[in-house]
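TICKET #2291
ISSUE: user wants both folds in one file
ATTACHMENT 1:
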Amino acid sequence: MNANVPEIRISQGQLQPEGGPPDGQPPAAAAEASVVRRFLLARGNSALADRGFQLLMALCALSIFGIVVLIVVELVLRSSDAWSKFHFAFFFKAYFDPYTGLPNYWDPVNEHFSALPFVYGTVISSLLSLLLAVPLAIGVAVFLTEMCPQALRGPLAFLTELLAAIPSIIYGLWAMWVLVPLMREYVNPALIRLLGWTGLFTDENPTGLGFTTAAVILAIMILPIISSLTREVMTAVPHSQREAVLALGATRWEMIRMGVLRNARIGIVGAVILGLGRALGETMAVTMVIGNDPKISASLFAPGYSIAAVIANEFTEATGDMYLQSLIYLGLVLFLLTILINGLARLVIIATTQKGAQTQ
């Protein structure tokens, strides 16, 4: 359609008559309108196609809800006996060894099962990984968006996103041969000398396997996710925000802090939550470096266990029905833990949005 022809709006039942152009309408526009009318009449009624498309889109949306419901139902049904036996005590109960007096949380021989050490290991390693990854990821995003030369921006962004494409088993192998010796020989002794007085860094595990090592490898794995999403959110901030802050006499750092990061904070929170979801469900890399010991220790150097790791290690070895159902129950716990954390994150986003709207 020619650019100089005005827009033509035709609604069903309100077509212009064929006899000549209306008053004041150019002949070319009238002829083109006649072509449009004939095309619409030749198509017939499109209500059926519209209803079909609407139904198809509704089915696509409902399929997500259906998948979640099927997962929950399957986990609940497959762990019904474990739920009937342990109930909520599965989350915190400890069984004490009659000979040593020490707590024993996971004893398949006597069918004593508790999720407490696995929930503890999953949460501690994931939160530590966020503590390490979030500042670094935001720093990378700020540099690539605001400070990086144009010639280096593309290669650095590609290398950052390439980290997300590396399989987790490769991270685990690299951690076993590089990261674990590095932590054992250099990092752990240095932290013990500097922060040993806190009780969080004690020399009770000389192998280098433990929560801290698992957190480091998780931080490397979730860094590209948080960094890429943060960079996209910062890029979406209008340049007028930057120019306005600079025009008021702000420095470059003040412009980034108040004009960019402040406006992108909701998206950054979403990126952090996605990274946390990846950390909670990571299996192979964590299994290879966390130590796989179902104990609870205050030391971050101590070996531990995560929910995903124990399911991956022991699912094929589960011989009894209660043993197998307890592992499936752990899967349900991990699913509920992920929903809980995402729900809390949603509340944080809503609170941040409302606070920002009130301050504006």
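ATTACHMENT 2:
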Amino acid sequence: MQKPYEPYYNDPVYDMRDLNDDGSLDNPGNILYTVPTRTGQKDNYNLSVGVSATWSIPQDKKLQDQCKEAAATQIELQKQLTANKRLDFEIARLKNCGELKKQGIYFHPKSPYYKVCADVVVTNPGGVIPPHRHSIPSVSVPNAMPELSDSSPSAPLGAPLQIRTPLPSP
């Protein structure tokens, strides 16, 4: 149904007269009268009620099972790829943080980026970090016999050590 309903409307008829024959309208825009014009509108009432139902039975259960298996395999593959990428990321982080810590480079503890490498531990950074030197003072005591803990008979006598190489056997 169309609202507002109008069975007709008034169509104006304008004054188109030229009384003095000069080629222009004498009273342009003046409405002489109106003509009632029918609109053609009708009242329409429509009421529809519908119900739809579908019942589907797969004809081949084997294809349905294969589809489910393929979907599960694809999900597991995506999970594994994600785990591999995470492992690659963590190993790269471990390597870079470890290299920087060995060089003595790290973020300040109050930096928001400090926690990026906070869990990386370097336990033996290649032994001694160069340059690393110790000075050993020498003490000389005149006519003093050094105390040796070795119990071999040649040690207190000051005899030089001899290293014998075994003869090759025939």
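RESOLUTION: both attachments delivered.
EXTRA DETAIL ON ATTACHMENT 2: The radius of gyration is 53 Å.
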